[in-house]
Specification:
415 residues, mainly alpha, 18 helices, 0% strand
């Protein structure tokens, strides 16, 4: 009886809390119409000129490669590498590579596709989701490093700490519900990897529809995903604007400043961190522009924000992963661990990094004055080139790795 009453109380709290939050934001939009429209327009243009051309080729390409069986082909070849390290199948290499190179939420999209197609188990998908949801290097180095900190060296350092922290999370989650001892996984015999890879490729082509149908489905699914991503970007642009207008962010910042005073964090840095919990770009920009904040604190807080990625990115990833049987709370816990790892690693390693490089000389960033149409086509062209380059590189890497393992097995047999 007590358990049932607790569930009812939890249900009523969640229900009425959601209703109250939605009512509050609808009322705030009515009270601040000009600010809401301006924020929505900024979010729309960000999606149209930056996010859509950058991510659409990756979404369509990933759908096609999975449907054609190429990801399965690469997965068989890289199984001996991914299984001992992260306790995931070789297909995880594709998810991690696409996530690292293209950014949020491509990793979540690929994991969802692999899980829905039964290519990986629920536990394997949960492990992949813990470290295959990362920001892209173009955003970290270009937007954050050069655009916000005026230093490409800081951008490189943030990217290094971000991906190192993601790998650490992946190594940690390799022990999540592990049933097979690691020595058995490493020493498991593998025979004819390349032949097995081609066999899996042929099987995937037989089980999937013709290429024309596959292409149509890939374009349709990718555009549906991009519309969802755009909706969340616009929504959270308005949400952050409203929270700033009503003073919510200022009140929380003052409260946390009293608690975190022993850490010598400025009020501006705390306010930037709160904004970054909701939206990664705005929060990072506020951190970089904050006055009277030590550079090491700026870098550490920014690393935390990029790894956490913000509720805007979480909403995008959860809407994708929510179509599977994955535990969303565990995914959020993994992102929180990623954020703490990135912040701590940045704080510990940045003093040593600063001694090696001159970080005081800024690299000035000039805005592109070209039209929206030229920005769109230039961005989609660069994204296509990057996708093809990544795919070829991953394919060559998998073949070389499989060839080296075959040579090693051959000499083992000779002995």
């Amino acid at each position: 009886m007590i358990y049932i009453k607790k569930n009812k109380v939890k249900y009523y709290i969640n229900t009425y809390l959601v209703v109250f939050v939605v009512f509050f934001f609808v009322l705030a939009i009515v009270l601040f119409p000009n600010e809401s429209v301006k924020a929505a327009h900024e979010g729309l243009m960000t999606w149209l000129t930056v996010v859509l051309p950058a991510l659409l080729p990756f979404f369509i390409g990933a759908e096609l490669l999975i449907g054609l069986g190429v990801v399965k082909f690469i997965g068989v070849l890289l199984e001996p590498l991914m299984r001992p390290l992260f306790n995931v199948p070789g297909e995880g290499s594709f998810a991690f590579t696409m996530s690292v190179t293209s950014g949020y939420p491509v990793g979540a999209k690929i994991i969802t596709k692999l899980r829905l197609s039964q290519s990986i188990s629920k536990i394997e998908a949960q492990r992949l989701a813990s470290f295959c949801s990362t920001s892209g290097p173009l955003f970290i180095v270009g937007a954050v490093g050069i655009g916000m900190f005026k230093s490409k060296e800081i951008g490189y350092f943030l990217a290094f700490s971000h991906y190192l922290a993601a790998i650490c999370v992946g190594l940690l989650f390799a022990f999540y519900r592990r049933s097979t001892p690691i020595n058995k996984v490493i020493n498991r015999p593998e025979k004819n990897r390349i032949r097995e890879a081609f066999r899996q490729l042929s099987r995937c082509r037989r089980d999937n529809p013709p290429f024309g149908v596959l292409l149509g489905n890939a374009v349709k699914e990718s555009f549906n995903t991009m519309l969802m991503v755009g909706g969340f970007i616009i929504l959270f642009s308005v949400v952050i604007k409203i929270l700033g207008e009503v003073g919510f962010i200022d009140y929380i910042a003052y409260f946390l400043h009293l608690i975190l005073r022993p850490l010598n964090m400025s009020l501006t840095a705390i306010k930037s961190l709160i904004v970054g919990l909701f939206e990664i770009t705005i929060g990072g920009k506020m951190v970089a522009e904050s006055m009277y904040t030590p550079l090491i604190t700026k870098v550490s807080v920014t690393a935390f924000i990029i790894a956490w990625s913000g509720f805007s990115i979480h909403a995008q990833c959860i809407s994708l992963l929510g179509t599977t049987d994955l535990n969303i709370n565990l995914y959020l816990l993994a992102k929180l661990i990623h954020a703490f790892f990135a912040g701590i690693l940045s704080y510990l390693l940045f003093p040593l990094y600063a001694k090696w490089f001159q970080l005081s000389s800024p690299v000035f960033f000039t805005a592109n004055s070209s039209s929206y149409s030229s920005q769109f086509f230039n961005s989609i062209k660069s994204s296509l080139e990057l996708f093809v380059l990544i795919f070829i590189g991953l394919l060559v890497l998998s073949l070389l790795f499989s060839l080296l393992l075959s040579i090693r097995d051959f000499f083992k047999k000779r002995k």
